[in-house]
Design brief:
The protein is an alpha/beta fold. The chain is 46% helix and 16% strand. The chain has 13 helices and 12 strands. Helix 4 runs parallel beside helix 6. The chain is globular, with a radius of gyration of 17 Å. The two termini are 25 Å apart. The model has no long low-confidence stretch (mean pLDDT 97). Bound molecules: zinc ion. The site of zinc ion (ZN) has 4 residues, from loops. Zinc ion binds next to loops.
Amino acid sequence: MQSIISALENKKILISDGAWGTSLHKLGLEPGECPELWNVTHRKEVFSIAKSYIDAGSDIILTNSFGGSPVRLNHYGLENRAAELNEAAAAISREAAGNNHLVLGSIGPTGSILMMGEVSEQKVFDGFFLQAEALKKGGVDAICIETMSAIDEAILAIRAAKDATRLEIICTFTFNKTTSGEYKTMMGVSPIEMVEAVTKAGASIIGTNCGNGLDEMIDIVQEIRKSDQATPILVQANAGIPVLKDGESVFPETPEMMGSKVARLINSGANVIGGCCGTTPAHIRELVKEVNKLR
Ligand SMILES: [Zn+2]
């Protein structure tokens, strides 16, 4: 097991991976199909995504387990296979990463809103606990709780993952720009509120993923740094904000466009950078090239 904090101390900036969801769809995952089931039914395809990011120069890759909490798998009737699917996800990324790269076990939101009483706190906690435990068993180095929008759910996930694994925990939220120009999550949480809550709950790396391109991510990092100058920040940006083209969402930013913003992102205070929706190994290659210039 490797420490992402020590790796950061050595290399100063780390490069994470690019999109999983949009990559799975390119390989044939149909809308409405469970992405995590592919860890056992389409192992080769999932492995090829993990490997493509290692080959592109990522220091860190995630796992195909974003929707792997039992609460979320329940939508597909796969609740009882949560441990198996998460362990498989971790094992695939571990195999692709070898021992010289880090693997972060991805944990996304349950899709149910606690505040609305759609699911109980205990059930959410138990689900994240089981998921994190299985990811550790499959060989991850740390846990990455991502795309969060509610504080209560993020805190449950951090506590559950810490209790289950004792590994380092990363937690990132997804923000959108409001009409008044502020950044808030879907549940109304600001970057500063996120920082306070998740660092207190025990996350060793904080940050933001999805929802935005690098221009907006730079604003968000600056916002976070106003209240926290010490905690490392992870940013996984989309390849721009999607535009509708012939009825399909297209992510507009080329690898070069993303690459041109890397220096500004790092100067704003980001420490680990990678991609989210719409990014490809070509985008990661470009990030690596730009970061190497700054090292
Ligand atoms: Zn995304």
